[in-house]
Amino acid sequence: MPDSKAIFLKDATVNAADGDQRAFIRKALGGYYTNRDLQKARYRDWERARDAASLAKWSAVNDLANVLEKFTANFERNGGVVHWARDAAEARAIILKIAEDAKAKAIVKSKCMTSEEIHLNDALEKAGYGVVESDLGEFIQQLRGEAPYHFVFPCMHVKREAISELFTKHLGTAPTDSPEELTMIARRHLRQLYVDADIGITGANFLVAETGQISITENEGNARLTAALPRIHIALSGIEKVVNNLDDLSVLLPMLATAGAGQPMTCYNTLYSGPRKKGECDGPEEFHIVLLDNARTRLLSDPEQRDALHCIRCGACLNVCPIFKNIGGLAYGTTYQGPIGSVITPHLRGLKQWNHLSGASSLCGACTDACPVRIDLHHHLLHNRRNAAKESPTLFDRAFHNGFNFVIKRPWLFATGGRIFRATLPLLQKLPLPYMGAWMKTRDLPKAPSQSFRDQWKNQNV
Amino acid sequence: MRVSLFVPCFVDQLTPKVGLATAKVLKRLGHEVEFRSAQTCCGQPSFNSGQWDVAREAAIRALEVFRGAEVVVGPSGSCVAMMRQFYPELLKGTPHAAEADDLAARTFEFSEFLVKKLGVTDVGAKFAKKVTYHDGCHALRELRLKEEPRQLLRAVKGLELIETEEGETCCGFGGLFSAKFPMISTAMVQVKGGALARTGADFVVSSDPSCLLQIGGWLSREGKPILPLHIAEVLANDA
Amino acid sequence: MSDARSDIFARIREALKVKAPKPHLKTDANPGKTSTVAKPWLPDGGETADASLTILAEQLAKLKAVLIRVPDKAAAAKAVAELSAAKNWKKVAFHGHELLRPIAASLPCETWEADASFDKQRLEGCDAGITTCESIVAQLGSILVSSATSGGRALSVLPHVHVVVAEASQVVPDLGEALALAKARHGDQMPSMLSFITGPSRTGDIERILVLGAHGPKELYLVLIG
To answer: Less CB within 10 Å around the terminal CB: N or C of chain B?
Structure first.
């Protein structure tokens, strides 16, 4: 197994030192902050809206079995086919089987992070299918052979020059530095692919139990086309995406857009109930949904962090996270980057291998404030740290904190130790001590005073 | 009121002037100030490292130290947040839970204590300098303090307060985080420190001495002309 | 081996044996009780029809969608014909609806009732698609189309321009009302697609710079009668 922590430390170190790239990311997010604040200001009470959104997700997640039963019964009543997958391998097998039965050749996909989670494209390509990502950002990342950098803004780290080169190489188009022209190149290239594809694969943002509809949020129209033109529509979704009622969307859809992209609503918010109905002129003949567990029930079984399943994948926590902005999305090595990724990845893929992400945070809490469904993100990073220390304590950590405890529980020792520490500080700073050496590389410590507070207080107040 | 000082361990050892300034302001306002010397560290380094058993011991000791104190006031949003927000979480379901809640209710961050508990904004300070304010994340997001320190600073005679870009951005300290992930922490302080330096202020003031350690340490290394100063030091200045 | 469905349900039931507390809400749990508006904390959708129309116009302008207000059906046909001439449309597809047929007939170009003889390749070659809609949400500037009111799924998204013709009475204040209306109208026979369209298709994927017309229409017109 690759050492995920070592890779993270290496990548994060390289990226954190890349001032140009960091400035590029910061600039790219500038417009988002402005628009988000403008849209938030239109809410008559954003905090109450957050309460309502959080309550809507809480009530569905905490009654998940019943809500899923209701959703799937209604989905089937609408003429859709429900598939269940315990893990990634099962989900891939189900989708491959549908493609095989349909004798499909070409598959078009709209943005779906769950498909990244199960590495669906690899599996489809290995089986000989042509798979094209249709979301512009995902399309660019597919051509680059790179995972999404940000689960809402997949290629936000790529400069236009690089995209132009990429298109020249793969599509044979003339170089341009205009984002508009680059977008039009992709538009022209993809249009015929929608028309020709046999299968369209999408994700789902919400599964509405009351009506059996799935809700898909997007801006480009690619999901609309993916679910309109191919003969078969497959939606892949985590089991936690259910909500009870259609009315819940009247809160969740606008908040997803505002928190995630600084919009009042994204361009297309579409509800699908079943394949083409009698009397309808287009739409797929078959509509499948693959409902994926893949360790979500493990997270569900932790009541302390269960609210992480409320996540609507808006990406707001990434956009405000100083860690994300400084190390970039790829360094995480996860499907879900940023604070939410650091919280849930240990549950989905193992605490021992992924706890370092919870450690790599100053716990500033900007994410928690940004979360439209009030997930207690930064405190969950603390919970992961606690669970990891219990599950697989490192010797160094135990020794360090036990030693520290030995000192601080004895005020006289603390005072004496402090005196020695201050006296020898100039020397200590030159030694390669753990922690202090790392600190001193880029920062100075203040000059140590000759007397501590407690000594001065005693002298003043005798 | 009889105020029991809660002096962060690194203030005790590295920046004692912050503790002295805190006491000076409180005394000037006519309050009795005590320092219980059995206090050491609140346990936050261990708590943040996941070593909750160790942190729990520190919390229980703090309960003993401050038992019977009328109010506990600390010049650090971070250490006060530890006592107020995290002790109750650490000691939930233990025999100490009620006492942890009780201590939390009696514990205040310095600027919060002045403005919210005492209702004072003008403490009679003078400081004819240009300053910018850094919100420590614990004060801002755990204790929800934003206006309180600014109200105090605006009332200081001669002081010009200017806001900074990246105002609510973390400085990258995060306790042991700054040493465990020094490259990320440094990138963060470059962003924050760079913005603070661009304000043209003489001092960056904060209610969090730990942020000032980080910001000041970086500013000093980079030779930037802006100096770190704790809000208590500003408010203590009356000459 | 048990099947995946029962396994997953067993895991869920096991996991939920331990209850999670209600989320920690920052405000009172039952807001909105004192107001006539269903969710008085969301963006305002207007409490009167006039107020709603004002908000709608503001929202559409910000979204770079074009609102054309006309007094009657004849004026609507004239407006769309002018648009067609100005933009030099060659082929226009429209939804077979009594409101739209006379409009299509007045256009100075080739027109095609797309849902009568659907052909995706032919639709791809059309310059514009004309549809009706279910309702219009003032609060957000969203137009709710459905496979029933908009000639299926593709007509409102595949052509480069989308024109919606609607009556002013179809404007509702907020999203909640639009959803409730759709539920009341269709019951458990929902159209297979309902889509809230909020401005022309867009992307910010390249350097977060806004570009209109990513895959769907680059231009969106709402012709509002009355």
So the answer is: C
